[in-house]
Design brief:
The complex is a heterodimer of chains A (415) and B (64). Chain A has 415 residues and is α+β, with helices and mostly antiparallel strands. In chain A, 48% of the residues lie in helices and 8% in strands. The radius of gyration of chain A is 21 Å and the shape is globular. Chain B has 2 helices and 4 strands. The longest helix of chain B has 10 residues. The chains are: A alpha+beta (415), B alpha+beta (64). The interface between A and B is medium-sized, with 28 and 26 residues.
Chain lengths: 415, 64
């Protein structure tokens, strides 16, 4: 690896624009050296084929504290998602990971998400009603982008959404790179573990048909059956710690990512009103427009880390075992080698094999949920507020800083 | 067009079902892909190619 060291996160000139460095890196230095906020160094990948190849390789998974991987966050400032902290007791690789994934993944099938759609539409309509009643200008993130995914994931998990301010703080702390102190993160993490543990105990006492209740019932049925009575081929249930970690992971994953994406999608589509007007005229483009927004989003966050337990060759170069690789999905999504006209939006682009949800055995578990929410939001806004526009110049939008995931802190709109 | 899927590779993302719902489905018990039609008619083939292209684990194989 030659060439300059890039310092992550890369600066951008405009809150919706990609860092200028991506283009140069993809062309001249696709296997780059990067300095992380911790001061540790990593390998930084920006080309589509390289990112896709590494993320899809089951030998390499997200590093945990057990690995001697480069750290993202400065000492003490990293939440569990940045440090790979061992308190998250989920099977993270191989066969046990696939088993966990299938136990939980069946709650996120397209069929189940389609069944949730009418409820999502009602929720979205109600939130838009409240926003319209309060009057323009409104912050679309606070009025719709944040509450919708929180209500939906809380409903799935059987958690009261009334606690959403606390969840929001816990989630930010979990995803901290530089925003919080070690003390604040430890406190938040402890509170979230205690909350979820008590919630699981309460569900154990009074099951309610939600995702966690069902996972608990399955694990109890397995305990009663015992090892001798185990049905052949039946998967073992989850332990209490695994249930807590599953609940925490889903609560956090259901929080920031889709909330941020709703704001970014609307801001991107309104940044060039020709895009918005085209969708108002032809709502059949909603599905592909959502995918294109996911691809075009330059502000996705840090990228995914992989720890190399063995040597690997990328772009004809040896990346030695012990290296940590940061895969930039948004840089890969703007790679001309993979997408014709990569720096332009094509609302009807198909196929659109963007890497925003990751690829391989760890690709986003909730992607059908996210897609459904994004489609519902876009359809509803196009129908209800065809005159929607950004209430500030795009340069005045502010990016979320200091977290693993990127977004806009406010999305002021008028109609 | 002949289609096959690799259940072992499948990660249950459901991207194929969203792209081509007449051709792909997911098992209720674990979200793994099921093939509804291994020889899709011509008017469905674009959607099937899209499904194969967007599969996050490249678990869908299309042969001429």
């Amino acid at each position: 690896m030659t060439g300059p060291v890039v310092r992550l996160p890369l600066p951008t000139e405009d809150p919706l624009a990609p860092p200028a460095a991506w283009e140069t890196l993809r062309r001249q230095c696709p296997v780059a050296r990067a300095a992380l906020p911790s001061g540790d160094s990593a390998v930084y990948l920006t080309r589509y084929d390289h990112v896709r190849q590494l993320l899809a390789d089951p030998r390499f998974v997200r590093p945990t504290e057990r690995d001697d991987a480069a750290r993202i966050a400065p000492e003490g400032a990293g939440g569990a998602a940045a440090t790979g902290s061992g308190t998250v007791a989920l099977p993270d690789r191989g066969e046990p990971h696939q088993r966990w994934r299938r136990q939980v993944g069946r709650y996120f099938t397209v069929k189940r998400m389609t069944a949730l759609r009418p409820g999502m539409v009602r929720l979205t309509e109600d939130l838009v009603d409240a926003m319209v009643t309060a009057g323009a200008p409104a912050d679309l993130r606070a009025a719709l982008g944040f509450p919708l995914p929180v209500y939906v994931i809380c409903d799935l998990l059987g958690i009261p959404a009334d606690d959403r301010d606390r969840f929001s703080h816990w989630s930010d702390a979990f995803l901290s790179v530089t925003r919080y102190t070690g003390e604040e993160i430890r406190t938040a993490h402890g509170e979230l573990v205690a909350y979820m543990s008590a919630h699981i105990d309460a569900k154990r006492a009074r099951p309610a048909g939600d995702l966690l209740s069902t996972l608990i019932e399955e694990s109890e049925a397995d305990e009663e059956a015992g090892e001798d009575g185990e049905e052949p081929g039946r998967e073992p249930g989850l332990s209490h710690d695994e249930l807590v970690a599953t609940g925490m992971g889903l609560l956090i994953a259901g929080h920031e990512t889709t909330a941020n994406m709703i704001g970014k999608m609307v801001a991107m589509l309104l940044d060039d009103r020709g895009r918005w007007e085209r969708l108002v005229k032809d709502p059949s483009l909603v599905r592909t427009a959502v995918e294109e927004s996911l691809r075009f989003d330059a502000n996705l966050g840090f990228g995914l880390r992989r720890y190399l337990g063995e040597d690997v060759e990328i772009d004809g170069r040896l990346v030695p075992a012990g290296s940590t690789v940061v895969c930039s999905m948004p840089a890969a999504n703007r790679d001309e080698r993979a997408f014709a006209g990569a720096d332009d939006t094509d609302l009807g682009r198909s196929p659109n094999p963007h890497l925003t949800f990751g690829v391989g055995p760890h690709s986003c578990l909730g992607q059908a949920l996210a897609r459904t929410e994004l489609q519902v939001v876009l359809e509803t806004l196009l129908g209800r507020l065809p005159t929607l526009r950004l209430a500030v110049p795009v340069e005045e939008l502010r990016k979320t800083e200091g977290l693993l995931v990127g977004g806009l802190s406010e999305v002021p709109v008028a109609w | 067009m002949k289609l096959s899927v690799d259940e072992e590779r499948c990660c249950g993302a459901g991207a194929c079902v969203l792209a081509a719902p007449e051709v792909f489905d997911q098992r209720d018990e674990d979200g793994v892909v099921t093939l509804l039609d291994s020889d899709p008619a011509e008017h469905r083939q674009n959607a099937v190619r899209e499904a194969a292209a967007v599969c996050p684990t490249a678990a869908i194989r299309v042969t001429a």
